[in-house]
Amino acid sequence: MNQAKRQDLILNLVKINGEVTTKELADELNVSMMTVNRDLKEISKWEEIQLVHGGAIYRKDATLENPISFKEEVSIHEKKMIAKFCRTLVKPGSSVFIETGTTTLAVARELFNIENCQFYTNSLLVMNSLAKYEDIQLHCLPGKYRDLSKGFLGLETTDFVKNFNFDIAFIGTEGITADSGVSLPNEEDAFTKKSIMKQAKKNVLVADHKKFGLSYLHKIGEVSEFDMIVTDLESKQPEFKEISNLTTIKSVRKEENKNEH
Questions:
Q1: CA torsion angle for 143, 147, 149, 152 (degrees, to 10)?
Q2: E-state strands within the chain
Q3: What is the C-alpha separation between 209 and 136, in angstroms, rounded?
Q4: Cβ atoms of 149 and 100 closer than 8 Å
Q5: Strand, helix or coil for residue 181
Q6: What is the DSSP letter of 166?
Q7: CA–CA separation, 100 vs 181, rounded Å?
Q8: Which of 127, 135, 185, 218 is exposed most, by the fewest CB atoms within 10 A?
């Protein structure tokens, strides 16, 4: 990754999280803390971030919804671990809905070859990824295309989905808290996810640890409305413990794989 691209990625990470530490950025980008410090110093000249001891904070209050192209480059390893666990939740011959998002895309890439499954999606990324495989039963929903989500949303999508009863649906999100529930910045996206959840026998929320503690205007539902949450959030974190009182939550961190929640 070149310097300009790395600095853009760092800026977006600060925007999304509000604040980040130098160590977190170094781990995320697989570079030295010295490199991150140099990048942060350069980015601070743009006046969008403020340097603090051990990291940086975003100067503006509002969090932004980033395009899929950025999200695909964040927490790649964690999303793969989440996806591998999700494969264990799908039985051969199941009808599976895969919603928009980069974590759900990782899930799709793990599930595609489970025998005799029928896959449904409103995600252009999922459709393009799975369409290259032969002997796959793949269906794409109609709807209004939204570039930020790279998916088809809205009334046309929700009307169409009412014709089905899916065995399992994998849903993504931007924010999760025990009090505020599961939420998104975009109303149409949240509306579409709600409709899909109504048609599934089992709803699985997939989210990396960065989504926890964030809350947005448009609510998909309460945490308790999901049958399971699959994440890389450590079970010792307060958010994990709070949510474990409301629904089943599974951490896929390697050191915790022996524990079921």
A1: 10
A2: 19-21, 49-52, 55-58, 95-98, 118-121, 137-140, 144-146, 151-153, 168-171, 175-177, 181-184, 203-206, 218-221, 228-231, 248-251
A3: 32
A4: yes
A5: strand
A6: B
A7: 19
A8: 135
How many angstroms separate the Cα of 233 from the Cα of each of 84, 128, 238? 15, 29, 10
Global pTM reads 0.74
What is the pairing mode between strands 144-146 and 151-153? antiparallel
Give dist(CA 64, CA 185) in Å, integer.
8
Are the beta carbons of 72 and 138 closer than 8 angstroms? no
Q: Say how far apart CA 101 and CA 74 lie, in whole Å.
A: 12
Crossing angle of helices 76-87 and 102-111, in 10° steps, is 40
Calpha distance 197→138 (Å, rounded): 19
| Secondary structure, 3-state, 74-88 | CCHHHHHHHHHHHHC
The closest of 228, 224, 164 to 198, measured between CA atoms, is 164
**Nearest residue to 204 (alpha-carbon basis) of 69, 111, 74:** 111
Asked whether 80 and 48 are in contact (CB, 8 A), the reply is no
**Residue 210 banded pLDDT, cuts 50, 70, 90:** confident
Token pair recorded at residue 258? 């022996």
Q: How many CB atoms lie within 10 A of CB 27?
A: 12
The rounded distance, in Å, linking the Cα atoms of 216 and 141 is: 26
Contact 220, 173 (CB under 8 A): yes
Res. 176: pLDDT tops 80: yes
- In this predicted model, what pLDDT tens digit does every residue of 181-190 receive, in sequence order? 999 989 999 9
